[in-house]
Amino acid sequence: MAGSEVGADLWVSEYITPWDIYVHGITQVLAYKKTAYQEMYIVETGIYGKALVLDGKWQSCTGDEFLYHEPLVHPPMICHGSPSKVLVLGGGEGATIREVLRWQTVEKVAMVDIDGEVVEACRQYLPEMHKNAFDDPRLKLVIGDALEFLDTSAEGWDVVISDLSDPIEEGPSFQLFTKDYFEKILRVLTPGGFFVVQAGPVSPGEMKLHARIVNTMKAVFPYVQSYSSHVPTYGRPWGFVLGSREMIDSYPDTEKIDKLLAEKTTGGFRMLDGTTLLGMLQVPKHLREAIATEREVYTLAEPPKFFGKGSTKS
User: What pLDDT is attached to residue 308?
Assistant: First the structure.
């Protein structure tokens, strides 16, 4: 193409819809493994740094992961105000627990991920993501199934974070976006606890999955709040859903949030503060309407199925 210079010979083609592809230029493959659960690549990209790719789906990369992990972790922590015990389901890169452990009030974090080989590869090749969070004495790492953990856990958790891979049919996570799963989450939440789930894209052509996850959450939680953040390497804005027995303030006081973060967290934020959170909680009209008209509830018998896997080509 005139005026363009291509800087990669290897490309990860991520199928966004049946008509759209995001092609990521790769400069180096750092690790590859077909585990018992999924196909994993850890790669170096041209401008966004290192990335984790599972089953051809872009998970996160060092260049813009803060636009995903800060919105995922901190809104439920802020809503609680002083979380002591946090449960993370998924989160293989270690970036989610990294953000959780920035809260000085946190005394215990349990991270449950089904794929130990992915976790170990991330520990080795993505130190920029986890920043040694796996070595924090407050962390208990469990390699196992999230549903089994929830069924056998007798503990209560102030915040539960569901940071799972997309629910593609061949992957390990498609059952974990269902009413059955959310009911298990509610059982282990403390009375004033908050739950958050990464809940798919909210672009106009794809937001039905998100709207249905919100509707499924409403079948379980008394209070539910949708919000989103634009993540460039995902190719579209990404949705999250908060759930709780407690009311969720969609118009929080920005100065109070900034004060809370200054007093109870360490390390500083790149994206999130009181003003950012206030903005994220203002759901656009087209998405509000899609959520309001959605009636389907995902169950284990009828779970969601996310579109497609990707491929790697040179």
Answer: 55
Q: Residue holding tokens 């270690």?
A: 94
Residue 303, in any domain of the structure: no
**Catalytic residue numbers?**
163
Both 154 and 200 in a single domain?
Answer: yes
pLDDT at 218: 97
Other C-beta atoms closer than 10 Å to the C-beta of 236 total 21
Query: Tens digits of per-residue pLDDT, 89-131?
Result: 999 999 999 999 999 999 999 999 999 999 999 999 999 999 9
**Mean per-residue pLDDT for 4-26?**
85
Domain extent, residue 55, equals 10-63+308-313
Q: For every residue of the chain, which 3-state class applies, written as one string?
A: CCCCCCCCCEEEEEEEECCEEEEEEEEEEEEEEECCCCEEEEEEECCCCEEEEECCEEEEECCCCHHHHHHHHHHHHHHHCCCCEEEEEECCCCHHHHHHCCECCCCEEEEEECCHHHHHHHHHHCHHHHCCHHHCCCEEEEECCHHHHHHHCCCCEEEEEEECCCCCCCCCCHHHHCHHHHHHHHHHEEEEEEEEEEEEECCCCCCHHHHHHHHHHHCCCCEEEEEEEEEHHHCEEEEEEEEECCCCCCCCCHHHHHHHHHHHECCCCCCCCHHHHHHHCCCCHHHHHHHHHCCCCCCCCCCCCCCCCCEEEC
Q: How many CB atoms lie within 10 A of CB 136?
A: 15
Q: What is the domain-level CATH number for residue 279? A: 3.40.50.150
- Asked if residue 46 and residue 122 are part of one domain, the reply reads no
200 touches 238 (CB < 8 A): yes
